[in-house]
Design goal:
The chain has 183 residues and is an alpha+beta fold. Helix content is 55%, strand content 12%. It is built from nine helices and four strands. It has a four-stranded mixed sheet with strand order 2-1-3-4, with helices on both faces. Helix 5 links the parallel strand 1 and strand 2. The longest helix is centred in the C-terminal third of the chain and has 18 residues.
């Protein structure tokens, strides 16, 4: 399938949110609280003439999607970018074209396309600053064979999730990173 077809078959924001079961509250909360400043809005006005569209490879259970998807939606509204959500686990044919480091089905992945369906930018699964934060946390975990590995890993993810939901500077970092892919 070409990217236009993937886009047309994707879920709208409301359809996607309606299907969510795991991170719906967190995603909607970020969406409702994240505001773009005037400087960003002005930059995104210049993007409107490109008439971009976005395909979002995602899954409800993904903490990074909970953070990144609502930030993208706010940017998309200001830039007049139509967004469609494609569930990764049901669409591996598309996902496997956008593997992270050529091997990982990490999400979310944002595929920006023009009106003809040509790819003009790809972003994801994390802003570089967020990737560094996650890698630092993982580096501090005990060995995978250690009896407390699972417990410490879950604590790390819980801490990251709380930061994702409440740290406005993280939201801004993500917004700046996504914008770099479309400006």
């Amino acid at each position: 399938m070409d990217l236009n077809t993937w886009f047309q078959n994707g879920l709208t924001k409301d359809e996607y949110i309606g299907l969510m079961k795991v991170n719906k509250e967190g995603m909607v909360s970020i969406y409702n609280r994240f505001e773009l400043n005037e400087e960003i809005k002005k930059k995104l006005e210049a993007v409107q003439s490109k008439k971009l569209r976005a395909i979002v490879l995602t899954e409800d259970w993904c903490g990074d999607a909970m953070l990144n998807n609502p930030v993208l939606l706010k940017l998309a509204e200001a830039a007049n970018i139509e967004v469609r959500f494609v569930l990764r686990d049901q669409n591996l044919e598309l996902m496997d074209q956008y593997l992270t480091n050529g091997t990982s089905r990490a999400i979310p992945i944002f595929i920006f396309i023009d009106q003809d369906g040509n790819e003009v930018g790809v972003w994801g699964p994390r802003a570089p600053e967020m990737q560094a934060l996650v890698e630092k946390g993982r580096a501090e975990l005990p060995d995978k064979e250690a009896p407390d590995f699972q417990e410490k890993q879950m604590a790390l993810y819980k801490t990251l999730g709380a930061s994702y939901q409440n740290d406005l500077s993280i939201w801004q970092t993500v917004a700046n990173s996504i914008m770099a892919a479309i400006l």
